[in-house]
Amino acid sequence: MGQNPPYLVGLVGTGVTPSLTPALHMAEARALDVDYVYRTIDLTTLGLAPDELPDILAWAQRLGFDALNVTHPCKRLVVEYLDRIDPLAAALGSVNTVLFTDEGLVGHNTDTTGFETAFRTGLPGAPVDEVTLLGAGGAGSAVADALLRVGTRRLTVVDLDAQRADELATELAGRHAAVVDAATPDALPRLLASASGLVHCTPTGMKEHPGTPFSPALLRPDLWVADIVYRPLDTALLQAAREAGCATLDGGRMAVHQAVDAFRLITGLTPDPDRMIRHFHSLVAPHEVLA
Predict the structure, then answer these.
(1) What pLDDT is recorded for position 290?
(2) What DSSP designation does 20 have?
């Protein structure tokens, strides 16, 4: 292998054992001639509780890990245990990448930068005057911030939990020069009648939660539709959107570009996004067949 130092990276969260992220990172490292080991730290498999996160961080540091990716349910929990947080991650209150540095533990959020790049490259030139975001959880928060950074002038956050939608909308409006509203799903017929685009950020459409998050009859040909679900990659929502004549963006691009950004932060090297997207599709394809 190459002259660069070896890297040891982990992924912390519940149910992360089947994650494609380790294979994605290690394949890119091989292509760059870098020694890179990426392991899952599955809280479910190990019988660990999220409140044991401080111990996990301490042991990872002692055992020589260079970085950890952090996923559900630890993205917000991890913030209080860090020594420094990137301003964007701090504004979101959510971290998915922790670097172990000489200055301590440093947190970043590549979910939001990953979606921003995915949107710019996957739906170039798409209008963002008025966008509806479905799902006000951690992923929704990261995506919402990215949408406002790419120029969305009016964003409506839709969630079954009206309070959660309202809290996210208020927080976003306080940081961005845009109109941000909150709504519940019963408003979707009105919202989608005039929206430029829709981003779906709930688990609906995943193998464990099949179906569409709303009636496909609400889709119109001049509405673009993005879905952050990537297993399966071609969700029922995206299939319905294509049938309705909508431009679409699948969740694979966000998944890859957040990994691209994390890999760059961890190694200081520049990965090849197109190569990583091709590898991602080769990893997903067998699962698509089995789904």
Answers:
(1) 34
(2) S
